[in-house]
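Protocol step 4 of 6: structure prediction from sequence.
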Amino acid sequence: MLPLVLDLTGRRVVIFGGGPVGARKAAFFQGECRVTVASRSFSKVFGDMDVSMVRMDLANARDVDLKDLIKGAFLVIAAVRDRALNTRILSLCRKAGVLCNTASGEPGDVIIPSVWKGKSHAVAVTTFGRSPAMARYIREKAELGAGDIDLMIDLQARAREVLKSVERSQERRAAILWEIIRDPAAWKALSKGEEAGWEYVEGRYLHG
């Protein structure tokens, strides 16, 4: 499996299951694409989500009914308690050529990672389904050490534009940007604010 970052604008994600697992998946995708959730009942949290809800007795649903929901989807998430039903949904998705993630049962084609985001960055962690708890632990450890990552990203972008006009060598530009990231004094200055960080970097690396 390979990790990818996807733009799901205008895409449709279908989630089977209105319980806690389905709710977490819906919260992950809402705002990024069109989300449809199918279930016989729904957790209260769905009332605050921007998703479409379809009431359906999934346990007794016919294949044709499930296929109607799957049709046109970019990704399907089978998140019901019944492992056999999740596997059945996966089988229907494969026949339809639709990617599928399963909460239990036969492993699907897609793993949804544990993710945390900043303004200018996102970090995703997965243990390939072997230990979701460990993926969450790694993510939380990374969050604690995040510091001023967003500010450094903005500073790097700003420095990169300046370097394009004063340094012809792409290799040298890349080396300077890497030096800035590894410079403890740059991070210390950045902790005082974006302009303080820029003042240090500009004097130390851009006009030296």
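Step 5 (inspection) to follow. Residues 101 and 107 are 7 Å apart (CA to CA).
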